[in-house]
Amino acid sequence: MSFEQMWSDLAPIGRAASSGGYFRQPFGSAERECHAWFLEQCAARGLDVETDGNGNTVGWWRSGSGPSVLTGSHLDSVLDGGAYDGPLGVVSSLAAIDRLRERGFVPDRPIGVGAFVEEEGSRFGLACLGSQLMTGAVSSERAKELRDRDGTPLLDAMNAVGLEPDLGDSALLDGVGCFVELHVEQGRDLVDRGAAVGVASGIWPHGRYRFDFTGQANHAGTTRMEDRHDPMLTFAMTALAANKQARLGGQRATFGRVQVEPNGTNAVPAKVSAWLDARCSDEATLAALVAEIERQGSQRAERDGTSLAVSAESVSGSVAFDPALAQRLAADHAGADWPVLATQAGHDAGILSAAGILTAMLFVRNPTGVSHSPAEFAETADCLVGVDALADSLERLAGPGAPR
After folding, report:
1. Which domain holds residue 152?
2. Would the annotation count 279 as a binding residue?
3. Residue 231's domain is classified under what CATH number?
4. Is residue 140 over pLDDT 90?
């Protein structure tokens, strides 16, 4: 089946008619439908499917021996997300297997196509949850505490779709020597360089932090402005401070989720909880940025008669992909090298790299640079270049003479 046909089959699943965005939340009906589609595609190619108790799945092309080469990505989305973030890597991996077989290529070592669960953290608040569970980066105690916004425990959500959660290290990674993830670029670097495909050098450190602003609920009409202890005001000024500090340092700071209590139109709020997503070029800068935002927020809270408490929900360190592998994959394609670039977005590749697996990433050009939005896009022609790029990479890693 062609890339175009597979993409067409996936396109309607979980798509909102109103916005055109996608709602493929982990262990929900749309994401499970995508997973069923993946199983069908693996079966059509004669791949040997293995699934762990948490829903991570790999279809294996059993050939040769020695350390296996894994590729793939994820099928879940952020709320009202784009079509390409995640699924492009899964579809391209299947298409790359087809391309290699069309070439008559027989790998010297097994090649797997993986689909990881809950990469976005859109339901249970922890990004790359599936791969973190696979590698043991998340403890079973913490996993058992995770709840979605409706209060559903992670384990209950897994059980509801027939999974038997296994919160230890996953056997799916046994024997994996290398992982290559293809992903749509979430920025405009490749547009500026005039290149359809690039190779990742590393991932910026990033974290998610909960800011709880507490004040005093009161009447919106009868309470004089000078008598208020309004946590919404404290939050607003903290969000402005985050924006300014990130801009000054060329970093990233975003308050993208807010929860207000009691959330009434005619009431001064009692509490505002807001989640900060912060990303920086290095770990010291990340820590300093968050500390400065917290400092300014606390100072504002003193003036407003409110209080601020900050807690880190997840923090991921910087990832430097193996430079020799990146150069090997980037070198000499039709007489030119692919560009090598850093990314500010987190990926399953970063988790596997941190677990000691040799890891690389390929990016496909995004003409708008927009991601985590219905406007996310990649031209079909560029996607097909990406398929060939991934097939070339797998051939270099699993063919005769590949490094072991």
Report:
1. 3-204+318-398
2. yes
3. 3.30.70.360
4. no
Angle among Cα 325, 327, 331 to the nearest 5 degrees reads 125
Q: Does 208 show up as a binding residue in the annotation?
A: yes
Question: 366: annotated binding-site residue?
Answer: no
Paired tokens of 151: 């209060």
Enter the pTM of the model.
Answer: 0.84
Query: Which of 6, 90, 101 has the alpha carbon at shortest distance from 46?
Result: 101
Does 120 count as an annotated binding residue? yes
Q: Is 206 annotated as a binding-site member?
A: no
Residue 221 has pLDDT above 60, yes or no: yes
Q: Which two tokens stand for residue 78?
A: 């952020």
**How many domains does one find in the chain?**
2
Residue 403 lies in a domain: no
Within a domain: 404:
no
pLDDT tier at 169, thresholds 50, 70, 90: low
Same domain, residue pair 176 and 264: no
- Is 266 part of any known ligand binding site? yes
Handedness of CA 132, 137, 140, 144 (dihedral sign): negative
Q: How many CA atoms lie within 13 A of 227 on its CB side?
A: 8
**Same domain membership, residue 198 and residue 63:** yes
Q: State the pairing for strand pair 176-184/358-364.
A: parallel
- What is residue 67's DSSP assignment? S
Calpha distance 19→21 (Å, rounded): 5
295 is in an annotated binding site: no
293: helix, coil or strand? Answer: helix
